[in-house]
Amino acid sequence: MSFLHINNVHKRFGETHVLKGIDIAIEQGDFLVLVGPSGCGKSTLLNMIAGLDSISEGELLLDGRRINDVHPSRRDIAMVFQSYALYPSMTVAGNIGFGLEMRKVPRKQRREAIDRVAKLLQIENLLDRKPGQLSGGQRQRVAMGRALVRDPQLFLFDEPLSNLDAKLRVDMRTEIKQLHQRLGTTIVYVTHDQIEAMTLASRIAVMRGGELQQLGTPQAVYDDPNNLFVAGFMGSPSMNLVKARIVEQDGLPVAQVATDASTLTLPVVRDRNALRDWCDRDVILGLRPEAITDPASANHREGNIHEAELPVALVEPTGADLYVVTTLGGTHVNARMRPGTPLRPGERTRFAFDVSRMVVFDPESERRIRDERVTETTPIGETA
Amino acid sequence: MSNASSERDDSARERLQRWLPKLVLSPSCVLVLFFVYGFIAWTSYISFSDSGMMPDYTWVGLHQWSRLWTSWTWGIALHNIWVFGLLYIVSCIVLGLILAILLDQRIRAEGVLRTIYLYPMALSFIVTGTAWQWFLNPGLGLEKTMHDLGWQSFSFNWLIDSNMAIYTVVIAAVWQATGFVMAMFLAGLRGIDGEMIKAAQIDGAPAWKIYARIIIPQLRPVFLSAVVVLAHLAIKSFDLIVAMTGGGPGNATAVPATFMYSYAFSRNEMGIAAASAVFMLAVIAALIIPYLYSELREPRS
């Protein structure tokens, strides 16, 4: 039995079907990130876990207990809101202690709990201030303190970093991750930022249009996407999606991609069995920018490298990397190369494709074409 | 050559554009200066003069002011305005807040109800006063209706009871202004972050505690605005009382405004009337000026 079990949960607002049967199960200590574009239903799902929105259909189990109709205050959860939702008329200490006060915890015990959390979050010197006198980052800490002080079974975070500036966001991200590692709490975290999802999560649930697209570890979601949406949504710069055609060569399926002058033939390594059925049909290839590189930086030991000479359309140095744009199958393709590679637009250079990382999609259903496997996303040994 | 003339045209137009706002605004500015501030100054001067039925510009110093403060009717008027003002402000705020909280529960007919509560404010005080005078008149309104319906022992004659008459004025005034105060509070309630209420729910606060501890403390600016608006309405209240009780029975509902009117126009004591008018202005200014100052200064900080 998993710790938090979201079992075929639906949400309807009148005629609109906002959540269309979500199934997610996580273990104690997991950091689940719900990620997706705005309007995908991730916040609604979080509000339903919190008890702030009713569940139209399905079941919600926390630690084996059905909590569909339990009042938010009795679910043993705490929530950090996007706007922080601090009570402006109370001091920081009052804000943090309010939940305990409502639960009739004696003053002395309350004070100890507040001090403990304030120390943990390094906001001891702010306890007597009002929220209006705090900076964004400090408010964020107080909001987390208010959640931590009650020591609940489950923490809910609703886009907690979206109101911070870019630098502070990265710092707070690290801190949330450290806090999770130190306290071993179970967290459900909503964000639209796929980098936040990748860095924080132990489980990512990618959502779109009220449907769960994929649930898995960050690496599984990144390397082994279920469909075109997940492939395009996760990762920055995003995965290159290229039109291609599967043909049979020497009894094996290969992918043919149109280049400027001729055709590039890439051998297929993954999902070979499934792709046999796709011979002489159009598909979409997915290749991460880091799977296309210069021959010197290619991973010859683990990967399966296939080289080709292609024209350089554009060069984008970022300092750490050099992104080289070329054209494949009629679209621009990003390749990640070693910085300092002397390249200029219009030149031709050798690109190394790591075909072991190539994934193939059905252009119509947008689903991944993959071999049948037992369970794809949970690596063995990770289930507690 | 045509170029030069068009340039001259341009500069003339520019000059006109620069001066136009000033030209348009200056007549009203002059009128306001003369009729508002000019007459304030004139009234202030009259309060230090020997004026009786007609203005008389002989300077008598604080003579009229000392007569005002030793006047027995002025004492009654001041007492009445305290009773009226306090009850009026407190009742309007309490009732307005309760109505606003009830209307804020996402009820279906909110739009209709809000309009119904707000409508009395659209009436003039004269209409309100007259209507309530009819309604509370023992020979015409509520009492007579009850008698006609067979409840012979029913009695509600506050309007003609000199100890109770002031409360009838309070009832009518509260009836008129409560909807307005409710609208102010409703706007304040709508401005409160919904996530904060969700957070309080998760923290386990019952609804009344969410209001008492989190929402109402945040409505402090609305309370301040309501008090200032109601207080100056109370001090200015004149037409309502004239229409309802005429200041009577006796002096039972006399307030500074009716006092000022009767001394100026029926008792031929323009000097005392001017002193009372200046005193009322000073009280209202003491309320409004700090309020305006704090309101207008706020955007900068």
Can you describe this structure?
The complex is a heterodimer of chains A (384) and B (301). With 384 residues, chain A is an alpha+beta fold. Chain A has 2 domains: 4-233, 3-Layer(aba) Sandwich (Rossmann fold), CATH 3.40.50.300; 240-361, Beta Barrel (OB fold (Dihydrolipoamide Acetyltransferase, E2P)). Chain A is built from 9 helices and 21 strands. Chain A is elongated. Chain B has 2 domains: 1-46; 65-300, MetI-like (MetI-like fold). Chain B has helices at 2-46, 63-70, 72-103, 110-118, 125-136, 142-148, 165-190, 194-202, 207-218, 220-236, 239-244, 256-265, 270-297. In chain B, helix 3 packs parallel to helix 7. Chain B starts with a helix and ends with a helix. The chains are: A alpha+beta (384), B mainly alpha (301). The interface between A and B is medium-sized, with 25 and 16 residues.
Q: What is the approximate shape of chain B?
A: globular
The total number of structural domains of chain A is 2
Report the radius of gyration of chain B as a whole number of Å.
26 Å
Question: Rough shape of chain A?
Answer: elongated
Structural class of the helices, strands and pairings of chain A?
alpha+beta
The major pleated sheet of chain A works out as: 6 strands, mixed
The proportion of residues in beta strands of chain A is: 25-35%
Q: Would you state the CATH class of the largest domain in chain B?
A: Mainly Alpha
Count the beta strands of chain B. Answer: 0
Helix content of chain A: 10-25%
> Which regions of chain B contain 5 or more consecutive residues with pLDDT less than 50?
none
Question: What's the structural domain tally of chain B?
Answer: 2
Task: Count up the helices of chain B.
Answer: 13
CATH architecture of the largest domain in chain A: 3-Layer(aba) Sandwich
